[in-house]
Amino acid sequence: MNPVLDAIARRYACRHFLPTPVPAGTLAAIAEAGLHAPSAIDRQPWRIVCVSNPDAIADLEAAGMSTLKDLDPAGFDRIVARGGTLLYHAPAVLLLLQRPQAGAVTADLDTGILTSHLVLAAESLGVNSCIAAMTGAAFKTPDAEARKRRLGFPEGFEFVVSVLLGYEGGVPKAPHAIDPAKIITID
Question: How far is CA 79 from the centre of its chain?
Answer without folding.
Answer: 16
